[in-house]
């Protein structure tokens, strides 16, 4: 379905000169497998080759372009020694130096007695100037091939700057002229060139200023990427509205029983969220709503009450969690409340086998089981629901839209509620969740106390261990977070296995270990021991970042806190302070701190407002690594920088709405150009949803 004009861009990188299967694997790792991926690989610097002195005036350690006469080749006595070619002009001489030289190549490239233009860095060997492996060697009549200002690109091991630069330029030359999709008045107001010309300018910077995100060529291409994102999300939402759903309006009986079974009163924002969800579920179009709540704000209870609405209406509901720990955590919260209200609920994970699993599958297929909580196991083909009315997806960014749709396909246009405990800045909300209505939980349940957060240098580790020992003697339970699982030769950071051994030697055996490389059963056993009080201190990596609920835990130590993102630090800190007891979080850092790390730790001391923390994280680090790691559901932008292009995102959102209000199937002349834009940025799936035109 992709337009023929884009075929050259979507060919494999092996279709470019000089890229065989071996290099293709490295390019796949660096940029992607297609030619278009190289077009999006932005320059990160420049090499200025404009300085063209005579040899006598060539400054040491500078990059220069020299016109020289090739003199004698001096072949080395040993293969370990370099091959040298003496070159000269009327003012002096220079040696061109080659290691692991190929004699026939050098004889052909640098024939004695001929003139050549060479470019590279001039160094000194004793008193003699030399140039090791010149970057370029051309004949005087080919000097136009030599870029006087050359862009440089991010690399990966095995790829040279010259190879990557050549490949990117070859990819850009393939970029066709495309019909304009921007509104002419908007484009003129911004002073932007067309798409093809902007791409060429992006890859031909003339100064370091040209690498700025604010430059017109970069801004134009960033806007194109953001517009494709916003149109795709708007089309998903349009399809949701077009789908015929059904009204799920319960009588409130199960919800009354559930609320009565709660040990506390609902917060105002929980009550409002439930009201918004109930209103959406009672509407004829399927609900797609995001429930965004900070750590400990009570999302699970809101999800349960939403699931109860489906059960009251005679339908079923399922909650999908990204990990077994989180699924079991949700089940532990929901099961006693559901039992008190007389609702049968099942837990389904990859660990369930045999008769137990078969019994759950039968209960779901027959409709006897109204509610289910589970992991990816709920998405397997043999899991069938009699009538799935509501799908709840937790930690949406761990799944992505594809899995969200897979669960939704288990029913006839079920309502979908997605939840996240990761507060998301407004700009990221618009790019990742623009197809969703949003409810926010802004309060913590009554009785929770603020967490005392302190920062300490790692030199005071002995004091911290002593303080932890005193806290354990007084009945506290402690998390101790390390950035690595095992010792690494590459980085000198705390590792969890060494820390466990050290703390057991000092504090005794009641210390557990949890990390992502353990078997699930081993990990769950350590967590269960910690929750039950059999383990006093749990050494862990960020595997405990989300969804672990041990109210008795009141102390958290995070080693090398400067290595964590703000969102991660906030999530980790949220594992404590889950009761009415005072809690302390100690952020240990390695001095000296960089400016960004210092700002990050300062914010952690000042506030526990996850939404403010998320905005600061975006400002300090940019969107690419906002959530600590690149998460599968978050769009990865290649040209747009959300910290710099927030205003363009808002404009793209308004433009997308206007476009689809006027032409919901992109059938007009601008609409057809916009279909090309969607294909260009690989939003193929949404184009397939459009009526032909």
What's the β-strand tally? Answer: 22
Low-pLDDT windows of residues:
623-634
Helix/strand class: alpha/beta
For the termini, the CA-CA separation is 13 Å
* Largest sheet properties: 7 strands, mixed
Q: β content, as a range?
A: 15-25%
Overall body shape: globular
User: Helical residue percent?
Assistant: 25-40%
Q: What is Rg? A: 31 Å
Query: How many distinct helices?
Result: 23
Strand order of the largest sheet: 6-7-4-3-2-5-8
Q: Could you report the average pLDDT, rounded to the nearest whole number?
A: 88
Summarize this, please?
The protein is α/β, with parallel strands linked by helices. Mean pLDDT is 88; it is low at 623-634.
Tell me what the structure shows.
The protein has 23 helices and 22 strands. Helix 6 (195-202) packs across helix 7, helix 7 packs across helix 21 (646-662) and helix 19 packs antiparallel against helix 20. 40% of the residues are buried. Helix 18 links the parallel strand 21 and strand 22 (583-589). The longest helix has 27 residues, at 216-242. The strands form 4 sheets. Strands 6-7-4-3-2-5-8 form a 7-stranded mixed sheet, with no helix packed on it. The chain starts with 20 loop residues before the first helix and ends in a 6-residue tail after the last helix. Mean pLDDT is 88; it is low at 623-634. It has 693 residues and is an alpha/beta fold.
